[in-house]
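Fill in residues.
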């Protein structure tokens, strides 16, 4: 894990044109994001989603699908202009 992941594992992390942030206060560890986008998310030792360095390997639609799959909408997506696009 690189230093960026250690210091800020829940984002914001820029992946292509998207910026991904996991709201750790909302995250309940359902792991639906991990099931949908395993190259983007994993649960840490607190059962909170963190963003992997391999997120660039995921297509944007898969990242959107993973955000939509979150039962508590803890994954926040912004476009390249900083506009929130989900939720």
């Amino acid at each position: 894990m690189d230093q960026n992941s250690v210091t800020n594992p829940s984002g914001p992390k820029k992946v292509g044109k998207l910026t991904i942030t996991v709201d750790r206060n909302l995250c309940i560890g359902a792991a639906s994001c991990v099931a949908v986008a395993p190259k983007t998310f994993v649960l840490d030792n607190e059962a909170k989603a963190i963003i992997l360095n391999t997120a660039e390997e995921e297509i944007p639609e898969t990242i959107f699908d993973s955000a939509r799959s979150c039962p508590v909408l803890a994954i926040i997506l912004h476009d390249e202009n900083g506009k929130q696009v989900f939720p």
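Strands lie at 13-15, 18-22, 41-43, 49-51, 75-78, 84-86.
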